[in-house]
Amino acid sequence: MAKQANSVDLEIVSSSLLSVLQDLHSKYKSLQEGAVANYIPELAKVNPDLFSICIVTVDGQVYEVGDYQQLFTIQSMSKVFAYGLALEDHGRDYVLTRVGVEPTGEAFNSIILDERSKRPYNPMVNAGAIATTSLIKGDGATERLNRILEMFRRYTGHDVFVDMSIFTSERSTGHRNRAMAHLMLNFGMIDQNIEEALDLYFKQCAVIVNCHDLAVMAATLANKGINPITGERAVDHQYIKDILSVMYTCGMYNFAGEWAYTVGIPAKSGVCGGIFAVVPNQMGIGVFSPPLDARGNSVRGVEVCQALSQQLCLHLF
Ligand code: DON
Predict the structure, then answer these.
(1) SUPFAM superfamilies annotated for this entry (predicted)?
(2) Closest CA relative to residue 296, chosen from 263, 256, 262, 265
(3) I need a labelling partner for 85 at 20 to 30 A (CA). Which of 20, 104, 138, 203 fits?
(4) For residue 114, is pLDDT > 70?
(5) Does 271 count as an annotated binding residue?
(6) How far apart are CA 49 and CA 68, in angstroms?
């Protein structure tokens, strides 16, 4: 649990939490920095002005402003949840033989493996996420995808679907990810059909959510794995610390250190422009705004989370 003072501070502001979000939304909506992701052609079509912020507390209260019902694909934020499912499928020790927990300090799409172990560095960068998703159990591609979709249903509280145009757009242009998968096949870190593993990873990234969903999913992690709206368990409690530790150290890529220093809570971003952050035992935060900075993190998302951390005293230390 975050230190006691945080809970007290949060209580003081809880009555005006919505107005805190409204103020941040109006302050940052005019910020015109960054550029929407265009390396997946379909993603480049998004409206850069879309902007929403949502907080869901572990007791199920919801505060949201802006375009919080706007749908988008979850992209890299899916990596967090797939890591949890791989841990449930195989246990910590085995997953650690296939993917490490070390930050890279490099871009999310760097083609690097740990020299000594040949593992990808961590499950939050693309190489590690492809290896992680290749571990998801199931009898064939359809069953494995269905297990991923069912997992997202538990986290969001509703059925989720894959955006097939984003999926095919990424599949036909994702040669860099394909190169990583081949490298990992060479070192025995992936041992199944490469195209099937990549398809599953691309589909997982193309799952459709909105900003409200992000906050509910984050709140589920904050609530020890139980969705605070539905009461359903989404992930085994024992893996929450694994998931949040890796989010904390690796979730924001080559901005992870500065994020830990300035915001101080586990978080994950995606090239769609989403960021979700987890305040253990208190709340989940979701922000959506498509323009990205040079490291692939939402410009407004980073600003909002830094401001929220300060105003609500969310930093863990
Ligand atoms: O693998 C990719 O390139 C995308 N499907 C996901 C990348 C992503 O969201 C990275 N996040 N900032």
Answers:
(1) beta-lactamase/transpeptidase-like (SSF56601)
(2) 256
(3) 104
(4) yes
(5) yes
(6) 13
From CA 208, how far away is CA 198, in angstroms rounded? Answer: 18
For residue 292, give the ligand 1 atom closest to its CA.
Answer: 12
Distance of CA 13 to the CA centre of its chain: 27
DSSP 48: T
* Confidence check: pLDDT of 1 > 50: no
Q: Which element (helix H / strand E) includes 284?
A: strand 283-288
DSSP assignment of 248-279? HHHTTGGGHHHHHHHT-S-EEE-TTSEEEEEE
Distance CA 76, CA 271 (A): 7
Whole-number Å distance between alpha carbons of 66 and 111: 37
Res. 229: pLDDT tops 60: yes
CB of 77 closer than 6 angstroms to any ligand 1 atom = no
| Candidate list 68, 83, 201, 248, residue with the active-site label | 201
Which residue type sits at 153? Answer: R
What mean pLDDT is predicted for residues 88-102?
A: 97
Looking at residues 68-77, what average pLDDT do you find?
Answer: 98
What's the CA-to-centroid distance between 284 and ligand 1, angstroms?
A: 21
Q: Is pTM beyond 0.90 here?
A: yes
Model confidence at 253, pLDDT cuts 50, 70, 90, reads: confident
Clarify whether 79 is annotated catalytic.
yes
Q: Give dist(CA 276, CA 298) in Å, integer.
A: 11
Q: Is the pLDDT of residue 4 over 50?
A: no
Q: Cβ-count burial of 241 within 10 angstroms (0-12 exposed, 13-18 middle, 19+ buried)?
A: exposed
Active-site residue flag, 29: no
Q: Is 99 part of any known ligand binding site?
A: no
Given pLDDT bands bounded at 50, 70 and 90, which one contains residue 191?
Answer: confident
